[in-house]
Design goal:
Length: 308
């Protein structure tokens, strides 16, 4: 019998898809590795990490699997309330991904920073793969020693040495991460490589405005999809025309978002419009609709439509 194609070996039980991110202490080589995987530098325009749940950096298509690489701000020792909020957000993003790549540089001893992060991620549901980065900087012997030291640190699902600089093992790493994804239908269309960061941020601004003051009542039951966006000239001025849909899970939540006589939705629109205008430096026409999508959090097809 001929060997099955690589993709079928990878996902013997069926198609796999899910989210992955790289974590690790500062300077561990996370961004360089993400760039090496994506194959080109992608400027991250997000300067609002505290509001962004996760920004999709890239969708990697493999036969039998789809790996979605998301960005997360790094965990750090909080000095301010904002720092704490940021850390909470990092943890919640980490807890949403399926596979975490913990980056540990080959050329530095394992230190307290690595142990701290390992402990944090060991408490999450996601599978943890150790990535020994910057392998090109050390000898074979030193690399072997580091792999053994990493092996003692935690019961990782896999340990993969890579060099983002030479490209060595970068493809293998994507295959290894993909092999730990849950079985799932494809989450993004075939031709999708990355999400437009501006679109993601605009939807986040609408989501934030819609949640303001009602977070207790609607913690995670809300998602925003930008249906249409175009630049137009109106009365001699350029403006961006945006149609967005706010999805909630239940009729009662729809009522909360809209408010009495639509008053609250109007305020949401005004606030989001001002912030979007500031973000894109243009006048904005914003059209908001609220829809009920029952159980969207559990429906993969709907989830991907909603940009998750
Ligand atoms: N030789 C070599 N250098 C690397 C490699 N990967 C990253 N570096 C270097 O290591 C340094 C840190 O890399 P980054 O990718 O910025 O690390 P990071 O983990 O994203 O850092 P923070 O943003 O501080 O969290 C940079 O100077 C990179 O050029 C590698 O595979 N080989």
């Amino acid at each position: 019998m001929p060997n099955p194609p690589a993709g079928e070996q990878l996902a013997a039980g069926g198609f796999r898809a899910g989210f992955s991110c790289f974590v690790g202490r500062p300077n561990a080589g996370k961004s360089t590795l993400a760039n090496a995987i994506i194959g080109e530098k992608v400027a991250i325009t997000s300067n609002r990490p505290q509001t962004t749940r996760h920004v999709v950096r890239a969708v990697m298509h493999r036969p039998g699997a789809q790996l979605i690489l998301v960005d997360t701000p790094g965990l750090h020792r909080p000095r301010t309330l904002l720092g704490e909020r940021l850390n909470d957000l990092v943890r919640s993003t980490w807890s949403e991904v399926d596979v975490i790549g913990l980056c540990i540089p080959a050329d530095e001893r394992i230190g307290p920073g690595d142990r701290f992060i390992t402990k944090e991620i060991s408490e999450l549901k996601g599978t943890v793969v150790a990535v020994v980065t910057k392998a090109d900087l050390v000898s074979r012997e030193r690399l072997m020693e580091q792999l053994q030291a990493v092996d003692k640190l935690y019961d990782f699902a896999d340990i993969v040495p890579v060099s983002a600089k030479t490209g060595k093992n970068v493809d293998t790493l994507v295959d290894v991460l993909s092999s730990h994804l849950p079985e799932s239908p494809q989450l993004y269309p075939d031709d999708m490589v990355r999400e437009d960061p501006e679109r993601v941020m605009i939807s986040e601004l609408v989501r934030e405005a819609a949640l303001e003051g009602v977070k207790e009542e609607l913690p995670h039951s809300i998602a925003v999809v930008i249906e249409e966006m175009e630049d137009e000239v109106s009365e001699g001025n350029e403006r961006r025309r945006i149609y967005a849909e706010i999805y909630v899970e239940r009729d009662s939540q729809k009522g909360i978002v809209i408010g009495k006589g639509g008053a609250r939705l109007k305020r949401v629109g005004t606030k989001a419009r001002k912030e979007i205008a500031a973000l894109i430096d243009s006048r904005v026409y914003l059209d908001l609709h609220v829809r009920v999508a029952k159980d969207w959090q559990r429906d993969p097809k709907l989830l991907s439509r909603l940009g998750f």
